[in-house]
Amino acid sequence: MNAMPLSLRIPFCALALAGSACANQQPLAGASNPSRAASKFVESLNPSERTKALRSLDDAQRTKWYFARGDRDGLFLRDMDRDTRAAALALVDAFLSDRGSEQWRLIRIVEAINAIQEHDAGTSPPTYGDDLYAVHFFGSPDDAAWAFEIEGHHFVLHAACADGVMTVTPMFTGSFPAVIASGPHAGQRPLGPAVEVAFELARSFDDSQRKTARILDGTPADVMWAIGADAKAPDMRGVLRSAMSDAQKQLVDKLLATHAGLFDSKVVDAQLHEWRVKYPDQLAFAFVGETNLDKPHYYRLTSPCFTIEYDSTNADASHVHCVWSDPTTNFGGDALREHLKPARAP
Question: Which residues form the domain of 207?
Answer without folding.
Answer: 12-338
